[in-house]
Amino acid sequence: MDLLIKLFVILMLLGIVASLGSGLFYLVRDKENSDRTARALTVRILLSVILFGMLMLGIFTGVIEPHGVNPNIR
Q1: Taking burial as the number of CB atoms within 10 A of a residue's CB, which of 5, 32, 37, 69 is the most buried?
Q2: 46 membership: H or E segment, kind and range
Q3: Digits of tens for pLDDT over the chain (74 positions)?
Q4: Residue 50 vs residues 24, 31, 41, 43, 71: alpha-carbon distances, Å
């Protein structure tokens, strides 16, 4: 189960970076008035919101446990 969660997070992060890269590519290369840049960045935002929501849901349900680092400054 732990491996599946890590794989899901990594795949989502790769999808976010790929969408960001395609948005940059379309921004630089498109000479006409197309909406491909906006569509790519919309997909990036959607993937980011889904990833954030899934991580919060996993933490609240106990499926994902935070690592427990507590920075006590003395």
Answers
A1: 37
A2: helix 36-61
A3: 789 999 999 999 999 999 999 999 998 988 787 888 999 999 999 999 999 999 999 989 988 887 767 666 55
A4: 22, 32, 14, 10, 29
Question: To which residue do tokens 């349900």 refer?
Answer: 61
Per DSSP, 51 falls in state H
**What pTM, to 2 d.p., does this model score?**
0.81
In angstroms, the CA 35 to CA 27 distance is: 10
Q: Which residues of 20-36 are buried (b: 16+ CB within 10 A; e: fewer)?
A: bebbeebeeeeeeeeee
Longest CA–CA separation in the chain, Å: 59
